[in-house]
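Q: I'm building a small set of examples for a reading group on sequence design. Run inverse folding on the following structure and report the sequence directly after it, with nothing in between.
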């Protein structure tokens, strides 16, 4: 797994989503092997990206943008498929990262 891959997404969930939420806060990180890939899912029940963007307009998505660029470089360099999807949930956000299984 590329170093510091999860950190920007976990940090975004905490700083932008959960820190600004009232009530019960949850952050879930799942890692599972799926065929020849590893699927990592980071899910929070924070305020969501739209509300977080309104609160933190100047800090909008730099870590996520940099990580997307890093995965693209790894894909070009190693010829392996990496994928990153971000989904807005009714309450919170889910990030899914697909990495090739190490051989």
């Amino acid at each position: 797994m590329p170093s510091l891959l999860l950190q920007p997404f976990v940090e975004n969930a905490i700083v932008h989503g959960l820190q600004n939420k009232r009530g019960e806060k949850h952050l879930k990180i799942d890692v599972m092997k799926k065929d020849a890939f590893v699927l990592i899912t980071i899910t929070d029940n924070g305020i969501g990206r739209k509300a977080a963007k309104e609160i933190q307009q100047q800090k909008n998505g730099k870590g996520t943008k940099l990580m997307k660029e890093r995965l693209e470089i790894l894909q070009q360099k190693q010829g392996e498929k990496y994928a990153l999807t971000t989904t807005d949930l009714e309450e919170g956000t889910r990030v899914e990262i697909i990495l090739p299984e190490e051989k």
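The longest strand covers residues 27-34.
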